[in-house]
């Protein structure tokens, strides 16, 4: 086993192999990002990730393998979520993964093949990093250079952001590398009050709308709000995994579902 590990370390630290991995990573970023106007931002993000890895490890080659693997995992998660939900991963997803155990159960039950691929990417990255780290000595010079480059890379990523970003609409495009990081700007708006919700809560304090006949002057005002998240019955997408409380939210006071079928 040790001989195999030493051979892998020798192979992975060869300059041609490292150069090939780095070029493949850069090409993968270009293919995954898809938009030319956000490609500089994607490259700056990759550089920032590499600087963080270099700061932690003090090893240049090790940080290359770690950053290429992390960017590959980010792009794959973006691809999977875009394919099934038509929206890219965002910073709010971390909250549901950390504080909602049902999210992990749902993902493991409905998207197990994707989790296995993601796990394979993570395992391959971890093995490469551990193997290369054993052969490559740490360097204080690498850490110092990474410390200088990191704020520059972050600044470049911020400056390279396109000026046509439109909030949530950014998450519905096929930017597999930058979408998650672009959502960081939405953190500043999470605590803002929603005007429509305030109106709805005020109206709700009055007499509820119950089924049955009523005189015309007693008819309540009806608010009909359609959005991509509410016009499809959840069961048509999630199937048997649909939480009952989510299904009840699409029913009327008489228990009938009035959402349009998908």
Task: Summarize the structure in words.
- This protein has 262 residues and is an all-alpha fold.
- The protein folds into two domains: 2-189, no CATH class; 216-262, no CATH class.
- It has twelve helices and no strands.
- The chain has helices at 2-12, 15-33, 39-57, 60-85, 91-99, 101-110, 112-135, 140-159, 179-182, 195-204, 235-238, 244-248.
- Helix 2 (15-33) packs parallel to helix 4 and helix 4 runs antiparallel to helix 7.
- It is globular and about 70 Å long.
- 21% of the residues are buried.
- The mean pLDDT is 79.
What's the layout of helices and strands?
Elements: H1 2-12, H2 15-33, H3 39-57, H4 60-85, H5 91-99, H6 101-110, H7 112-135, H8 140-159, H9 179-182, H10 195-204, H11 235-238, H12 244-248
Helix pairs in contact: 1-7, 2-4, 3-4, 3-8, 4-7
Summarize this entry quickly.
The chain has about 260 residues and is mostly helical.
Mean pLDDT: 79
Question: Rg, please?
Answer: 24 Å
Which structural class should the secondary elements be placed in?
mainly alpha
How does the overall form come out from the CA principal axes? globular
As a percent range, the share of strand residues is under 5%
Tally of domains: 2
Q: What percentage of residues falls in helices of 4 or more residues?
A: 55-70%
Listing every helix as H and every strand as E from the N terminus to the C terminus, the arrangement reads HHHHHHHHHHHH
Number of β-strand runs = 0
The span between the termini is 54 Å
Q: What are the low-pLDDT stretches, counting only 5+ consecutive residues below 50?
A: none
The helix count comes to 12
> Biggest sheet, in brief?
none
């Amino acid at each position: 086993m040790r001989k195999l590990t030493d051979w892998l370390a020798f192979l992975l630290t060869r300059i041609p192999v490292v150069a090939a991995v780095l070029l493949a990573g850069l090409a993968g970023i270009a293919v995954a990002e898809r938009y030319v106007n956000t490609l500089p931002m994607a490259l700056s993000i990759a550089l920032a990730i590499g600087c963080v890895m270099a700061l932690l490890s003090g090893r240049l080659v090790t940080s290359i393998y770690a950053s290429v693997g992390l960017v590959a995992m980010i792009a794959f998660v973006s691809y999977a979520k875009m394919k099934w939900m038509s929206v890219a991963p965002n910073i709010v997803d971390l909250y549901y993964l950390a504080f909602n155990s049902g999210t992990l159960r749902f993902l493991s039950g409905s998207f197990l093949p994707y989790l296995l691929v993601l796990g394979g990417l993570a395992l391959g990255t971890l093995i490469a990093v551990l193997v290369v780290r054993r052969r490559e000595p740490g360097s204080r010079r690498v850490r110092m250079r990474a410390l200088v480059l990191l704020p520059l890379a972050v600044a470049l990523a911020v400056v390279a952001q396109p000026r046509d970003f439109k909030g949530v609409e950014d998450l519905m495009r096929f930017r597999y590398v930058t979408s998650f990081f672009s959502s960081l700007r939405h953190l500043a708006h999470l605590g803002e009050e929603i005007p429509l919700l305030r109106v709805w809560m005020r109206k709700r304090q009055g007499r509820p709308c119950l089924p049955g006949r009523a005189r015309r002057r007693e008819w309540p005002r009806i608010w009909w709000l359609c959005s991509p998240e509410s016009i499809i019955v959840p069961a048509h997408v999630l199937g048997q995994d649909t939480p009952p409380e989510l299904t009840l939210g699409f029913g009327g006071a008489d228990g009938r579902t009035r959402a349009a079928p998908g």
